[in-house]
Amino acid sequence: xxxxxxxxxxxxxxxxxxxxxxxxxxxxxxxxxxxxxxxxxxxxxxxxxxxxxxxxxxxxxxxxxxxxxxxxxxxxxxxxxxxxxxxxxxxxxxxxxxxxxxxxxxxxxxxxxxxxxxxxxxxxxxxxxxxxxxxxxxxxxxxxxxxxxxxxxxxxxxxxxxxxxxxxxxxxxxxxxxxxxxxxxxxxxxxxxxxxxxxxxxxxxxxxxxxxxxxxxxxxxxxxxxxxxxxxxxxxxxxxxxxxxxxxxxxxxxxxxxxxxxxxxxxxxxxxxxxxxxxxxxxxxxxxxxxxxxxxxxxxxxxxxxxxxxxxxxxxxxxxxxxxxxxxxxxxxxxxxxxxxxxxxxxxxxxxxxxxxxxxxxxxxxxxxxxxxxxxxxxxxxxxxxxxxxxxxxxxxxxxxxxxxxxxxxxxxxxxxxxxxxxxxxxxxxxxxxxxxxxxxxxxxxxxxxxxxxxxxx
Length: 458
Ligand SMILES: Cc1cc2nc3c(=O)[nH]c(=O)nc-3n(C[C@H](O)[C@H](O)[C@H](O)COP(=O)(O)OP(=O)(O)OC[C@H]3O[C@@H](n4cnc5c(N)ncnc54)[C@H](O)[C@@H]3O)c2cc1C
Fold this sequence. Notes:
This protein is of the alpha/beta class. The chain contains 14 helices and 22 strands. 36% of the residues lie in helices and 18% in strands. The longest helix has 26 residues, at 3-28.
């Protein structure tokens, strides 16, 4: 498609969005740009929408090109159960105090519900809540794990978390409680949060991200309220799978399976997994520093299995239910929606290697495996779930994983290389490009604002 065609399609849809948005513009602080540019943003996830909204409000012509038939990307609220929206991707604003997403949620008065780690019940391998003696042993081992990791962070050479913990875990027989406790700590505390396996996560940098304070909150209507808010007034082209980007000089050409778009600047918010798989061709190829960053960072997995029961049979006032599994990482972490939302729903997680492995299982196998764990904890007479919903993020072609992590060999600086613009033509955002808050929604959002500033400064 040539420039004029682009403008025609762009213009048509823009006209509709202009009508829709005209009355909102004033309230949104819309200003006409003195040097109006055409900007194509690839991806209608949080980072893409944040960048698009900012650039649109500053008077530029913006079109968001999105492969899926929905916006939000890794924010995806299922409305299959009418009385309880469920988030397949991000659920929580992690640390709401000072978090930019809190401001957005406040602007739309979005109702938020709180879960807290203070309300956690941990069960041993037999399914009993940890006794006082077991709790002391667990905390002692946790202290030793933290100490070993802190020591490793003071060294020059990097190693994986598993390598660093090996001298500690090797002191115990594989069938011992201590061995299981250490694996539980690695899985529940580290692999679930960072989505990479202990075998791959960098001991030096796995936790290099900053964090905001406060108990995590989730949205009563689902996280989708935030992308919906940011999408207001924007032209978004759904169902446009980008195949190639010709980027070395302006105008940049974005070629999709159906058509092509031409722009002065293009913002790439493709998830790290999609960049690693080379699903989109860059012509010419990306420079070495960029490719190096893409290859060296890790894309991890966190998968969810929601189970809905006829009634609550677990500790009703607990938010988190934990299980010290026999084998590493099997249904270690659960969230109860009883206390926060008064619903008889449990959410079981599988992260990292285990999260990836079960994606090939059938739904029936996954639910049965989850139920085995719940029966171990709560007994054989618990009810069967009346329904379930399951995610498979590693197999999703437009995500190919859940969120990024720092494996051995990656440093925080590498994320700046991923974020660096190329020749004033190509700009990069997305959670993986945010050095300070990678792996989160607020990291994605801030990366979108950062890239908008880069373009506005040109
Ligand atoms: C299971 C899970 C749980 C999570 N939990 C939390 C949480 O509780 N709190 C939190 O803060 N964060 C959480 N996260 C992380 C958070 O969801 C992400 O960091 C954030 O949403 C990423 O936003 P993004 O804009 O960088 O990427 P995305 O949202 O992935 O946006 C990229 C967009 O690009 C599109 N795209 C891909 N390929 C193409 C193509 N070829 N052509 C056109 N478009 C394409 C995608 O469809 C997508 O819409 C979770 C993620 C997952 C998966």
